[in-house]
Design a protein that fits this description.
With 374 residues, the protein is mainly alpha-helical. The protein folds into four domains: 111 residues, Alpha Horseshoe (Serine Threonine Protein Phosphatase 5, Tetratricopeptide repeat); 133 residues, Serine Threonine Protein Phosphatase 5, Tetratricopeptide repeat, CATH 1.25.40; 60 residues, no CATH class; 58 residues, no CATH class. It contains 20 helices and no strands.
């Protein structure tokens, strides 16, 4: 039987390879319980969580196995894998049934370069918990890392069998709670590497079905279709994904850029324009306007790029990126009387941060084209 502690998602500690996160919280609250420690960890505030956990453990105010598990998480997130190993092993010594500690122990052994031990740990995990898809996903990742593609494929397929669930939007926030869904993309990657195109396409279509046509899944399928020479189908998949439930402005931006890469410029601009209309705030609007300009400007649609940038500049007059891009478009057609003050403003903003930045260099180049260089 799988023992559970008050858990964050099982795969929380796998993010350690990306390094520790800095907390942005400014909330002040009493910090005297395990619940407080878990909340701090959920926020990424490991620096405060760790001493609290140590105090709770020292004062016998926490279950030792649980405290050692979360101390392991904190150590893993600051990339002290040896310390993390010590805590996970202590958690398992006190409670051998802690599934999450076993998963994370396998991860840190891999980070420590002890691949055989990691593989043994995760293999034993799947034997002890044969109905847990997370265990097979973790084992498959380790098998793939050591070059056992056949073993990895079998493990990933078992994860898919054990977890046939669909994934609700937004996909970037929910998919890690669905190991079977994550495993589908790993299977597709293995098929791609082995040149098994039909198998890859079938798996990605299943991922698209399970996610209700989510844009991220559509993008992966479209890339595979394009590699297979089925460009028209790739475009159709992406266009259909714009109708997905909950598709955000950011999703539409991504689809528009994928369509651009497929050479479907008309469709890309339609989607980019829709992203502008769906933008929820200034940040999303800025991104959508720049995405539209990036698609339109190099593809003979400078007027559409200029229109989007003018609207964005009216809404965000102090945004240096929008100002620079609009100034650059105007400079290209020698409308320098209007371009020069925009470019000078953008140059000042970029140079104040870094005189040698790319933005500053582009502003200087455009000013030179207008005869107003330094």
């Amino acid at each position: 039987m799988r023992n559970s502690i008050t858990m964050l998602p099982v795969l929380l500690a796998t993010a350690a390879a990306c390094g520790p996160r800095e907390t942005t919280t400014t909330t002040t609250r009493p910090q005297g319980s395990m619940a407080d420690a878990i909340e701090l960890i959920a926020e990424g505030n490991y620096a405060e969580a760790e001493p609290l956990l140590e105090r709770l453990l020292r004062e016998h105010q926490a279950q030792p196995a649980e405290a050692h598990h979360y101390l392991g998480v904190c150590a893993e997130m600051r990339q002290d894998y040896a310390d993390a190993e010590t805590h996970y092993r202590e958690a398992l010594r006190r409670d051998p049934g802690l599934f999450e500690s076993r998963v994370n122990l396998g991860n840190v052994l891999f980070y420590l370069g002890r691949n055989d031990e990691a593989l043994t740990t995760l293999t034993e995990l799947t034997q002890a918990f044969p109905d847990e898809p997370d265990g097979f996903l973790a084992l498959g990742m380790q098998q793939k890392a050591v070059g056992d593609d056949a073993g990895a494929l079998a493990s990933f397929q078992r994860a898919v069998e054990l977890d046939p669930s669909t994934v609700p939007p937004p996909l970037d926030e929910t998919m890690m709670d669905h190991p079977g869904f994550v495993a589908l993309f790993e299977i597709a990657a293995l098929h791609q590497e082995a040149g098994r195109t039909e198998e890859e396409l079938a798996v990605l279509r299943e991922a698209l079905r399970r996610s209700d046509g989510a844009p991220m899944a559509a993008a992966e399928l479209a890339k595979a279709l394009n590699r297979a020479g089925q460009q028209d189908q790739a475009v159709a998949v992406l266009v259909e994904a714009t109708r997905a439930q909950g598709a955000t402005a950011g999703d539409l931006d991504s689809i528009a850029l994928e369509l651009r890469d497929l050479g479907a410029i008309d469709q890309a601009l339609v989607v980019a324009q829709a992203a502008l209309g769906r933008a929820a705030g200034d940040a999303e609007y800025r991104t959508a306007a720049l995405a539209l300009a990036l698609i339109a400007r190099p593809n003979g649609r400078a007027a559409e790029a200029e229109a989007a940038l003018r609207e964005a500049h009216l809404r965000l007059p102090d945004d240096r990126g929008v100002t620079l891009y609009l100034g650059g478009v105007l400079a290209e057609t020698q409308r320098c009387a209007e371009a020069i003050p925009l470019l000078q403003s953008a140059l000042a903003a970029y140079a104040a941060e870094d005189p040698e930045s790319r933005g500053a260099a582009e502003a200087r180049e455009a000013l030179t084209a207008c005869g107003a260089g330094e």
